């Protein structure tokens, strides 16, 4: 999944898939960067500094959306012990190629005990609820979730752990925790998971560039910042 060649692949355009606010899109007419990730994806953690740098550089030029991919759902939900041997090697590869570091708290509190349940549902629901409350800062929150897990060793299956994560964004922590398990939030989250899968996005991280007329897959797997920027430049200058 390292340095996958960028393809200018036009994707089937579907407003429902990407939860588009059509009124806002018609008003702003900004191109849009759609970041498809999963909170439990180690390569997405490695990609976090890249997509955050891109956001910091182009936040005034493009709109940014985040979709949760549902990487660990259904039969893939299992204790982390089932994939521990793989993760013990893979996280070092991610560190080597991306420069991020997996924290001792993650290694000691999440990985080594082996009992942590790898399940994308709860962090996906947290993102769904957060997007409803803070639509402009969802990419920042994606990074917060991944740092919480992979650096700070915070269990993302526990509702109350989200309170301190959302408070710095100006979100009431108690209200957030109270509503994270709402049925409507769960249904919307699963709708997002299913639609991402339905439209062929099954590898994370992925980045789509929406010109307003066409959708281009500009990253599939980890890519460095320069490649991401070059892909967008190619689209916008031709």
UniProtKB/TrEMBL annotation:
Keywords: Isomerase
GO MF annotations in UniProt: isomerase activity; oxidoreductase activity
InterPro entries the UniProt entry points to: DSBA-like_thioredoxin_dom, Thioredoxin-like_sf
Residue ranges of domain DSBA-like thioredoxin in the record: 33-231
DNA repair found in the keyword field: no
Protein's UniProt keywords contain Isomerase: yes
Pfam family, one: DSBA
Protein name: DSBA-like thioredoxin domain-containing protein
